[in-house]
Write a structure and sequence with these properties.
The protein is an alpha+beta fold and about 230 residues long. The protein has helices at about 20-50, 55-85, 105-120, 145-155, 200-210, 215-230, and strands at about 95-100, 125-130, 160, 165-170. Helix 1 packs antiparallel against helix 2 and helix 3 packs across helix 4 (about 145-155). Mean pLDDT is about 75; it is low at about 1-10 and about 190-230.
Length: about 230
């Protein structure tokens, strides 16, 4: 599989996408879902034909179902590659970061393995993997994070969840995953009290209520992903 990374709906992007970008991603995933439905219908009818003793029709319907399955895979591949390019474009993530938003679990696994091996060949020491917090998934269960952790274990790499629970730090050198400290904040400026900036209570409340940007973007994607996975 070529390196992919797609989104399902608005929540699969790590930035504010254009309407055209959203439409293209949705178009590809919708086409994949439609082919999956046709595949399932063909296989169901093939089974019914077989039960009737009509082997010829059963074989024909089975072959038709396989063709729809191939088309489904191709549309999903295109969607995965599309979202990968969108989310991991230069300037949107750093060189030591990969964003897996918008990927199906199997797609994310394939992409991550390829990226880890490439990074190791380039002598990179670590990798930040953005997987999302799962706040908008069914029962708030993270789907990508467990698979990312499984990949790391299979490759003998240690990892750790970062302060942002939607990110995983991976040590690419095989040692302990020690997350580097964040850069120090600049010293207090004039007008701050006790080293802390002064905020009005209303401003503090608004800041605390402001959700994580990736959580906002992920919401639409996860709802559609759940629908698609039932079909796929």
């Amino acid at each position: 599989m070529a390196i992919p990374l797609t989104r399902l709906g608005g929540g699969a992007f790590n930035h504010s996408p254009s309407n055209d970008a959203e439409a293209e991603y949705d178009r590809l995933r919708d086409l994949a879902r439609a082919e999956a439905a046709k595949r399932n219908s063909c296989f169901d009818r093939a089974h019914q034909a077989y039960e009737r003793g009509d082997g010829a029709e059963a074989k024909e319907l089975s072959n038709e179902g396989k063709r729809h399955a191939a088309k489904m895979d191709e549309y999903n591949r295109q969607a995965s590659e599309y979202i990968f390019r969108e989310n991991n474009a230069t300037g949107r993530v750093t060189d030591d970061t990969i964003d897996l938003h918008g990927q199906f679990v199997e797609e994310a696994e394939d992409i991550l393995e390829r990226r880890i091996r490439h990074a190791q060949q380039q002598g990179q020491t670590h990798l930040h993997v953005i997987v999302g917090k799962g706040n908008h998934s069914t029962d708030h269960v993270q789907k990508l994070k467990p698979r990312v952790e499984q990949v790391c274990r299979e490759l003998g790499l240690q990892y750790a969840t970062e302060d942002n629970a939607g990110r995983i730090y991976v040590n690419l050198q095989g040692g302990e995953a020690v997350i580097p400290p964040l850069p120090q904040q600049p010293p207090a400026q004039h007008g701050e009290h006790g080293g802390r900036p002064q905020h009005h209570p209303q401003q503090q409340e608004q800041e605390q209520e402001q959700p994580d940007a990736l959580e906002q973007l992920l919401s639409k994607f996860v709802r559609k992903l759940g629908d698609c996975c039932v079909v796929m």
